[in-house]
Write a structure and sequence with these properties.
There is one protein chain. This protein is mostly helical. It has 2 domains: 94 residues, Orthogonal Bundle (Helicase, Ruva Protein, domain 3), CATH 1.10.8; 49 residues. The chain is 63% helix and 0% strand. The chain has 6 helices and no strands. Helix 2 packs across helix 3 and helix 3 crosses helix 4. The chain is elongated.
């Protein structure tokens, strides 16, 4: 246990160093305002290799290419939206960590609530229909009841 405690700080430093080194110094722009814009854009773009990280946090080579592409577009004079649109046009909307709600994507955003409302309506209909159906015990014929009695006495 004491060995684990001795190794814990080194492990924490290794993880922090790994995250901190995702954006390499040679990728950074000289202008701090442009670099801040690039970081803001990168925070919303998904690493296509890791799929659960933004491109700033990923060490994948494709994430590096995307970071460089974002900076290249900013240096070319694109606004933040134009840079994002360029990357989305090239890689598809999957590259966005938070998909847009416009176009046909509204159907994907609305599918969950629509399915919930549909399931609730079916449930209410089923419960009401079931409550309307009377429960009777006289559904056996005389012969069936006699046979049942014989089996139960058996």
């Amino acid at each position: 246990m004491t060995q684990v405690l001795k190794l814990a700080p080194a492990l924490v430093l290794a993880v922090i160093a790994n995250i901190a080194l995702a954006v390499q110094p040679d990728e950074m722009l000289d202008d701090p305002a442009m670099e801040a814009r690039a970081r803001e854009i990168s925070a919303g773009l998904r690493c296509l290799v890791c799929q659960n990280e933004n491109i700033d946090d990923s060490n994948a080579s494709l994430a590096r290419d995307l970071r460089l592409l974002v900076r290249e577009r900013l240096v070319a004079g694109d606004s933040n939206d134009e840079a994002v649109d360029y990357i989305v046009n090239r890689y598809g909307e999957f590259v966005l960590l938070k998909p847009r709600t416009g176009g046909w994507n509204w159907l994907l955003w609305a599918a969950g609530p629509i399915m919930f409302l549909l399931a609730a309506a079916v449930g209410v209909f089923y419960v009401r229909k079931r409550a309307e159906t009377p429960v009777t015990d006289d559904h056996l014929s005389a012969a069936e009841q006699k046979r049942l009695d014989e089996l139960l006495k058996g």
